[in-house]
Amino acid sequence: MATFGIVGATGVVGCAVAAEVECRGEPYAVIGRSEEKLRAMFPRAEARAVEWEDPHSALRAFAGLRTVVYTVGLPYPQFRQHPVLMRKALEAARQAGVEQMLVVSSVYSYGQPRTPRVSEDHPREPKAVKGKLRKEQEDLALAAEGIRTLVLRLPDFYGPGAENSLAGTILGAALRDMPAPWLGPLDAPHEFLYVPDAGPVVCDLAVREDVWGQAWNLGGVGVITPREFIQRVYQALGKRVRYRTGGRVFLRVAGLFSSLLREMYELYYLQETPVILDDSKLTARLGQVAKTPYAEGIAAMVEWARGRMAEA
């Protein structure tokens, strides 16, 4: 029976963790709302359906697990559910006897960066609602009683399966031979994490004794500008590079007609003054962390997208 479980396994981060667990030959359970989808995506794992509204369902989902990795992602209109689901997951895990939970979060909780690179001791003073909700989620996890916890913060990510991301939007536009959309300055520094790189880090943290009760950053391979990232995606596809940009005024006006763009306005500061993560604390604890170069990661993302198109 599995003692390692992944909550939100069908998301791109959950998939990365599952792939690494399988590489290590460990039994594991995947937890989500659809058992059918879980079985289809993870035939070698224990599929466990959960209905968060039912405490007994959540308790059954966590039964027998020692370590849980919580990777639940939510679309912007549902962001208020982050702390709600966190409370339910922590309580169910505690009652089920789960010993430790690793919670994957984002840079939103930091708010406006005060320094060129942001370490774990940077103040968390988010003004955006989504940042406050992420901070509340993190605080709930780190203050949990009866279970060891840690928080791992990731930047924007890209790679196979990362369709619901800024990079995924760029890739989709390139595949349709349309201009790449980008909200914000094209030449501001930015950071993307090749999401499969997160899997080994999560698994390495989960087996250590000296990492719990803390927050940890995992940055990308380096800083890149949105313009350069877009150029690399289009060039990998053999497409003519084209852009379509918008700023604060565009978001204000477009938000009158698009709920998604309206939700994005409060996070626009991340495009002007991005949070670039300092993960030296992590590398000091784990040693050298493997990070995929942008050229290699973008090539893998493009190959995955072409495979999806061939199957369609």
Account of the 3D structure:
The protein has 312 residues and is α/β, with parallel strands linked by helices. The chain has a domain at 4-157 and 195-220 and 276-291: NAD(P)-binding Rossmann-like Domain (Rossmann fold, 3-Layer(aba) Sandwich), CATH 3.40.50.720. The protein is 41% helix and 16% strand. The protein contains 13 helices and twelve strands. The strands form three sheets. A seven-stranded parallel sheet has the order 3-2-1-4-5-6-10, sandwiched between helices. The protein has a three-stranded mixed sheet with strand order 7-9-11. The protein has a two-stranded parallel sheet with strand order 8-12. Helix 1 crosses helix 7 and helix 8 (226-236) packs across helix 13 (294-311). The radius of gyration is 19 Å and the shape is globular.
In terms of quaternary structure, the protein is single chain
Which descriptor suits the 3D outline? Answer: globular
Gross CATH architecture of the domain at 4-157 and 195-220 and 276-291: 3-Layer(aba) Sandwich
Helix content: 40-55%
Trace the largest sheet across and list its strands: 3-2-1-4-5-6-10
CATH homologous superfamily assignment of the domain at 4-157 and 195-220 and 276-291? NAD(P)-binding Rossmann-like Domain
Helix/sheet category: alpha/beta
CATH topology name of the domain at 4-157 and 195-220 and 276-291: Rossmann fold
Measured between the Cα atoms of the first and last residue, the distance is 36 Å
Q: What number is the mean pLDDT?
A: 94
Count of DSSP strands: 12
Query: Low-confidence runs (pLDDT<50, min 5 residues)?
Result: none
SSE string, helix = H, strand = E?
EHEHEHEHEHEEHEEHEEHEHHHHH
- Percent strand: 15-25%
Helix tally? 13
Radius of gyration: 19 Å
The CATH class label of the domain at 4-157 and 195-220 and 276-291 is Alpha Beta
Q: What kind of sheet is the major sheet?
A: 7 strands, parallel
